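My current task is to audit a protein record that another person submitted. I need someone to confirm that the token line plausibly describes how this chain folds. Take the sequence as given and treat only the tokens as open to question. This is what I was given:
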Amino acid sequence: MIRPNTRGAGVRLPLLSLFLALAAVLFGAAPVPAADADGSWWEPTARPAADSQINVTGAPFKGKDAQGKVRGFVDAHNHLMSNEGFGGRMICGQTFSEQGIAEALKDCPEHYPDGSGALFEHLTGGDNGKHDPVGWPTFKDWPAHNSLSHQQNYYAWVERAWRGGQRVLVNDLVTNGLICSLLPRDRTCDEMTAIRLEARKTYELQDYIDKMYGGPGKGWFRIVTSSDQARSVVEQGKLAVVLGVETSEPFGCKMILDVAQCDAADIDRGLDELYDLGVRSMFLCHKFDNALCGVRFDSGTTGVAVNIGQFLSTGTFWMTEKCAGPQHDNPIGLAAAPPAMAEKLPAGVSVPSYASDAKCNKRGLTRLGEHALKGMIDRGMMLELDHMSVKAAGRALDILESQEYPGVISSHSWMDLDWTERLYKLGGFVGQYMSGAQGFIGEAGQKAALREKYKVGLGYGTDMNGVGGWPGPVGEGAPNAVKYPFRSFDGGSVIDRQVTGQRTWDMNTDGAAHNGLVPDWVEQIRLSGGQSVVDELAGGAESYLTTMKRTEQHEPGVNLAAGAPASASSTEWWNPFVTYAPYRATDGDTGTRWASEWSDDQWLQVDLGAVRRVGRVTLDWERAYAREYRIEVSENGSDWRTAWSTEAGDGGYDTAEFPSQSARYVRVHGVHRATDWGYSLYEMKVQRA
């Protein structure tokens, strides 16, 4: 069962002969002593007789370098337990089984006898209508780099990735209620129920591995809930596993016909539960617009299918608008709807067309989404920016910047790259999607100067079991073909082709078919002329743990204006039951606001009660915002000086920073409106520099 955690507390091969493999299948696997039973800490004291090989020799590196930093790769986006989500029958095969590999690595029942019943596999194009469903011991057709419905994270394959240099893995607990409802299933489609199950199974996997190594705490797979725990695990040469959440309707926060199906109390309870499960990072939206935020679109045929799914789940299709800045969402595309999805639409309903110059989702971060983000900040959790629409991501970054909060991550290339410096400046972390070696190097090169500027390493997100597709084969004669055996990046281990049962995988001819081929992929990056990228990947563990530590150490700035007396040049009045008085902008309630009369020259000021040092003002604008305005300060309320000004206000969250100075009174003075209304502020915060 899941171990309850309190905040801040810790949670706590040579090739087998065909005869032995078949005997194990027929008569059951029994634990046998490891090949190296002389006390080498990285070898188990017992492993099932019938099991995958690791095909890595040599001691895993551990400790710190001369600068006191840890080394190792970071898989910032993986789905170890995806098979437990989506109703239990979308990803076929298990990460582990107490009954052994023959039970773990078998296909879904409806895929037998020839794969023709594999609806999701056909929909995603992995098998051309049929495939051999047999897994262990033959693995004729799966796992494969283009098969999106078969297990890629068998524990021994994860072990091989660790032995090849990976030291941090983020296990994103994932599901989607709508997809679950369209597929064969053997359990509920409730998303939070699936998240709880996947968390429990991750702890069970830790126990399963511990038993092979002699008891609790002795295995290489260590779930961590703090940066100090993670750093200790990495220094021991083991794998630190961080729990994350990536789901479409967290806390039941779906949206139906633009009406939220959750409230702030649901979000607070949900965040508390996730934190106590050990979750330390999460996405607020994924694939479908929800009550928290709008999503970054999928493109092409996939985008059309997801858009139909959005309609079936929410009652609305995606809505687009012209982007306000250089960032944009993915183009939706005009591909024909997949028949299996189109037939789910009501009669007379079809996917709308979209203007080519409207590339941004109209939906951004909602007020409930802001509440959730602030709740994550209060709990020291890291926000995953990927999958957020440009509008939502921009608003989220504004809020994070207003609080100087470093806990922000882009884990698998689903963020507009123009946000990268804002993320690094906050102290966040970036991982790229596990694309082909040349493509990965090309993407890394685009932001290499920024990584050098901010002295950060690079991560990757394999998205294994995540229905994304992975690097294909390059061919044995390719210039960057991996030459087996090869050495790990640190030189301490020798890595040969990976063998499971009767199947041998080769990166050159099979591509990245499963998690165990991550070391081979990294070697292909090196052979592609990317040694510098491999070096940056080796700095990924240190950078991720630095972001995690900064997040834990964050102390919110004191809002000197909270509850302070406020006055204004004017107040809008049109409803005797609602007040837009000045104090509404300092009451700490984002559901209330101050609003001025409808003219340009208007101001709102707060009295801090005494002369204080100030250097930062944050404004949360309603739709009626200022295009041109200035921040003014005064010690006596009569003699004002301009501390900061802009002629390019864009609404939303604005954070004005200026050299620290003395002031008792702080005023936002509107010069030109951006709308026909007046000026309107939900909240005005004043902080020290």
User: Anything to note?
Assistant: The longest strand covers residues 653-673. The CA atoms of residues 618 and 655 lie 4 Å apart.
